[in-house]
Every structure is written in C-alpha cells, then in structure tokens.
Amino acid sequence: MEKVKVLLFVDRMRTGGIQILLVNLLKVFDKKKYSFDVLMLDDGTDYPMEKDIIEAGASIYKLKGIWINTPIDYIKYKKAVSAFFNEHHDYDVVHMHSSSKNFLILKYAKEYGVSIRIAHSHNTDFQTHNRLKIIIGDALKKQLIKYSTDCLACSKIAGEWLFGEKMVEDGRVLVIKNGIDIEKYQYNQKVRDDKREELGISDKLVIGNIGRFVRQKNHDFLIDIFSEIKKLSQIRF
C-alpha cells in the first residue's frame, strides 16, 4: 500500500508546545501508512528539537534565509514557498501549525494539487503590539480559511480567534486538545523523594510554573497569587 505523504509546517523548531506536540505525534503514527516531512522558516538557528523530529522519523526542509520581518522578506518568502512546492508537489496532506501570516503555505499547496490542506490554530493572539501587523494578520485570516479544507484548533478560544466564532459554532472547526504521554508523568514516590533531597526541599511545599513569558500564560495573575501564598511558611517557588 502506498504511504500517505504528509507535510507539516511550523515556523521554527524552538522548544514549545506545538513542537513537542509534533514530536509526540510523529512517534506514534504508523510509519507503514504515513510518511512525514517538516517544513520551517530559517532564522539561522539550528534548534535542538530538529534532532527530535529526525529521530521520530521525519525529514526536515528549511526555506533557507527566510524569516518574515519586513514586506521585502514577505516577497522572498512567497517566492521560496512557490519554489518549494514546485519541487515537492506530491503531498497528500499539508498540515500548517501557524497563524494567518503563513497562509501562502496553503495557497501554494492548493495550486500544486494538494487535496487536504489543514490550518491548525494554537494561539489566541499574534503576540505583537505592532498595530499594523495585527491589522494585516486579521485581514489574512480570510485567505487562510479560503485555502483550507479543514480547520483545527487546540481549544475553543484558539479556534474562535483564528477562524471566528461562527465557524466554531457551526462545527466547522474541530477542537483537538494537545495530548501528552501520561506514562511519563505517573506518580513515583522514589523519584519524588530523590529529587526533593537533591534540591534540599524535602519538607517544603513547592509550587512551580512552566511557560513562556507571553500574555496567554497569565503571569500577572500568577504573581498576584504567589504574593499571597508567600505569606505562608515553608513555601518554595
């Protein structure tokens, strides 16, 4: 049986939720049925997670020298995406894990005959305070939807942000929550005791947080909560 050929697009392979999700999914997909390539932009950095992608069985392609900061960069980006699909146009599925600024991935996928084109929302804003970029990004959402055959989101809010409330209400956006391998996080008393002893916190209440310093992680609220908790004794952060 011929394999289903899938192209996954992500801006870059820095350590983050999207990238970890991709690696986890690549590890469990049936390699006898599917083959995967990963396409990304190139900001000149070789990220450690690129190795994880390769070890999970996928190939990596980079749009060399392409990183979008200016209108001129976008022109170069457009040419690079077109050239990529001109050379690699035998995909059955293109799955884009990005916002509307990268709608060209799906546009050229359609032009080169890719029948299944998935837009996947993992965010709730453009992570910029530049008003012009936000206006342009909002305008490009219509283009993203236009060239998508399927719309996915990691949450209802993420779906509403990128595709609009009506599409979510009409059931045209499938919400797939990011899964994890729960076996890796099963409670283990020995591991707990050993790590606490190593860190010198055997008898302390420890509260931790893992997340990038961006608005969605709500660190302002976290700091308010921590300031109250700190009033208690034997607390470590």
Automatic annotation (TrEMBL):
Pfam families: Glyco_transf_4. Residues 16-183 form the Glycosyltransferase subfamily 4-like N-terminal domain. GO terms for molecular function: glycosyltransferase activity. It comes from the Bacteria. This is Glycosyltransferase subfamily 4-like N-terminal domain-containing protein. The lineage of its organism: Bacteria, Bacillati, Bacillota, Clostridia, Lachnospirales.
